[in-house]
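Re-running the complex after MR caught last week's input typo. The corrected sequence lines follow. Everything else is unchanged.
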Amino acid sequence: MKEIKVNLEKNSYEVIVGTGLLNHKYLEVLKGKEVLLVIDESIPLKFKDLITEELSNLSSNFHTLQISASEENKSWTTLDKIHSKLIEERYSRDCYLLGLGGGITCDITGFAAATYQRGVKFILFPSTLLSQVDASVGGKTAINHPDGKNMIGAFHQPLKVLADVDLLDSLPEIEVCNGLSEVIKHALIRDKEYFDWLEMNMASIISLKPDVLEHTITRSIEIKAEVVSEDEKENGIRKILNFGHTFGHAIEVYGEFKEFSHGQSVAIGMLMAMELSKIEEGFPQEDIDRAKELINIANPNISLINTFDYKKLMENMSVDKKRSGNKLIFIVLNKIGQAKIKTDIEESGIVKAIQSLF
Ligand SMILES: NC(=O)c1ccc[n+]([C@@H]2O[C@H](COP(=O)([O-])OP(=O)(O)OC[C@H]3O[C@@H](n4cnc5c(N)ncnc54)[C@H](O)[C@@H]3O)[C@@H](O)[C@H]2O)c1
Ligand SMILES: [Zn+2]
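Corrected-run output:
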């Protein structure tokens, strides 16, 4: 078991990575409290029963709300269901929300907690690799707007995050691949040694080898926690966590959130961002080749994609949040492990980066 501290000015908290975390010991803080569990319907029954039993024994007012996780359902309608349940069951400002599911469940539970009665506490049990290494840590909460992903949201930090590796056993391989995009992102922007280690261990991660998986989740969370601790509200350095995401979000919109998952979009987005890094910063081709190989092992399906209408992609980028005034923000790499924020990029370079992939 590993504990990682997210150090913040106010409300610092711990992320625990390990196995057997869905039990009493870690939920003690909920004793005698009002608790609403927001749970993804894909969570296997054995975990659902386990947590339900623990919480029924601990809590003074316990209810469960099951949600069906999809980008379409990361919406006002689902948020309204959570708020309505809280109001219907007369939850006070002292209540706790508990999210058990992937990034969608974590983001929406966090946003429901941020907005119910001007903000209540919440705890997360991320259940996908992506949500364990990324979405559950850092306090970004949101829902989608039909015209833009994560457009409505708030910064609201959880009280605790419990990343139980056992939960990943039932995860479809494609979802493991999705999470690996963020893992590779963490190494590329911040830690060359971790990148080298990932190259050696990628096959074991994909096959969910427990010790390798636990190290991956821990190191990725450490990197995210370090960056978030330096810049909680994303005024500066935290933007580097968006590496590959300016392109990636545009790709998600391009595929109407159905054709490409977040992880696949970020994988393609990182390939484009590395081409841009080569143009802008002289990021070495040798590093592109290594990163490309790793990304392709983690996400083999993306090599089947053979074209993008660059004009449409550019248009999608212009509504993205990752902008400063009228300028798009791009994260580029100088070398593996070292990222830089750039806003003054020529359109021709962006087009070239998109086109160079095909
Ligand atoms: N807040 C942040 O900082 C942040 C960071 C990265 C991503 N995100 C958000 O996270 C979302 C993507 O997260 P995700 O990939 O976890 O998506 P998700 O929540 O949709 O989960 C992916 C799929 O796996 C299923 N699932 C979840 N846990 C499972 C389990 N243990 N066993 C079997 N199936 C399971 C879900 O039902 C879903 O079908 C996006 O909306 C993205 O915007 C947020
Ligand atoms: Zn992401």
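None of the earlier attempt is carried over here. The longest helix spans residues 210-230. The first strand starts at residue 2 and ends at 6.
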